[in-house]
Specification:
GO terms for molecular function: hexosyltransferase activity. It is a multi-pass membrane protein. Belongs to the glycosyltransferase 87 family. With 422 residues, the protein is mainly α. It folds into 2 domains: 239 residues, no CATH class; 129 residues, no CATH class. The chain is built from 21 helices and no strands. The longest helix is centred in the first third of the chain and has 26 residues.
Length: 422
């Protein structure tokens, strides 16, 4: 069952209305954040947190690339003092605070044009660019996926109200941008252009934690055009970045990635913010690393099995003459939930990726049936911090595990496109 679509002649007006509504909403969001959020409100006294949040380290990285010092991107002796140079960034904040340089060199090269703008002004340009993801998503849903205008507006409003998405904007994070890439990938896959979808997914080289699960699922489904296109796209981006950054910066970045375990032990990492399977198990095992890794291996195996069952990987196709099954909403539900749960480093704002689920399910015309899970995810993320403080564990991964178990149970009758009793 699929959602009814409007005639082609009516798509343009519908798309304009959806994009217009999303644009107005984006403007309101930018104004509210710029005037009320601590990370973006202008202050003359020393600040408690950095102006622009995480964007600070990205601007610093872009500045190093722009001035020809990209080999220093991952040198804390260079980047930390720059973050606290009031003459450079235009504000003072606690010397004990910092934002680690954790993105690939290609991202700092891409962001370098913004570093030519004075940092306080660049922050607001960055905020506007992030908020522009909302009308872009509206366009993808209306024009690319042909959802009704009411559905598009409702989903965009839901995204703005979704705590992780708003937290992402307030912290200067890029989660809405990555959601836009995933929705674009979904739209291209849905239209049968999986090679182009893989090419677009190559952009996720900039956010590697969002890569392995989808690539693994595509391999399991034998979507080789997607996999090869994604690999080629990522390799092209990395090669093109060498026009701006040295090869040594990539080797330094690999060292940063390899030291993720060390990063998790620093004061800059808060398990209260983590929303993955590891964060849930860490609350139960504490400092007992051997016990933690044993439980994580078992938990990861269960998650992988549930993902395969939810996505119907390996099942014979009785309703299609094709040798491979379609990438329906269950495939994307399993992939998104698996990406979040299995990631080694997944903060609350990264949960914005859950926004793909109502979009994928709406395309199958079963959004109302999945609404209890969508509401459960919304509530869990909203009360997560309070539950962590009072009960000591994050409820969000519990809800995500339950949702994955529900969609992975036999028989699955509450999922779009799934015949009763499978």
């Amino acid at each position: 069952m699929t959602a009814p679509t409007q005639p082609a002649a009516n798509r343009a007006p519908s798309t304009r209305r959806a994009v217009g509504a999303a644009t107005l909403l984006a403007i309101v969001v930018v104004c509210l954040i710029a005037t009320t959020a601590n990370n973006f409100r202008r202050e003359t006294a020393p600040r408690k947190s950095a102006l622009g949040g995480d964007f600070l380290q990205e601007w610093i990285g872009g500045r190093l690339v722009a001035r020809g010092d990209a080999e220093l991107l991952y040198d804390p002796a260079t980047t930390d003092p720059m973050q606290h140079d009031a003459a450079l960034v235009g504000f003072e904040w606690p010397e004990s605070e910092y934002y680690p340089m954790v993105y690939p060199p290609a991202w700092y090269a891409a962001i370098s044009p913004l570093s030519r703008i004075e940092y306080p002004s660049a922050c607001y340009v960055w905020l506007a660019l992030l908020a522009a993801s909302l009308p872009a998503l509206a366009w993808l849903m209306s024009r690319g996926l042909q959802l009704r205008t009411g559905q598009v507006v409702a989903i965009v409003i839901g995204l703005v109200l979704f705590p992780p998405a708003m937290q992402s904007l307030v912290m200067g994070q890029k989660s809405l941008l990555w959601l836009g890439v995933w929705v674009g990938v979904f739209a291209l896959c849905r239209s049968g252009r999986e090679g182009w979808a893989g090419t677009l997914f190559g952009l996720m080289l900039m956010k590697p934690i969002l890569v392995p699960v989808l690539i693994g699922m595509m391999i399991a489904r034998r979507r080789w055009s997607f996999v090869l296109a994604a690999a080629g796209s990522a390799a092209t981006i990395a090669a093109a970045s060498l026009l701006f950054v040295p090869v040594s910066s990539w080797s330094d970045y690999v060292g940063v990635v390899a030291g993720v375990g060390t990063y998790h032990q620093t004061a800059g990492y808060s398990t209260d913010l983590a929303q993955n399977l590891g964060a849930l198990l860490m609350t139960a095992t504490g400092p007992h690393r051997a016990v933690y890794w044993g439980l994580f291996a078992a938990g990861a195996a269960i998650v992988i099995v549930l993902m395969g069952r939810a996505a119907r990987i390996g099942e014979p196709q009785t309703d299609s003459p094709q040798s491979v099954s379609p990438l329906d909403d269950r495939f994307w539900i399993a992939t998104v939930l698996g990406t979040i749960l299995l990631s080694p480093h997944y903060f609350a704002y990264d949960l914005t990726l859950l926004g793909l689920l109502p979009i994928a399910i709406a395309c199958q015309g079963r959004l109302s049936e999945a609404m209890p899970w969508i509401v459960a995810c919304f509530v869990a993320t909203a009360i997560n911090d309070s539950i962590v403080q009072t009960l000591g564990f994050p409820p969000t991964p519990v809800v995500l595990l339950a949702m994955l178990a529900w969609y992975g149970r036999p028989p699955m009758t509450l999922v779009a496109g799934c015949p009763a009793g499978r």
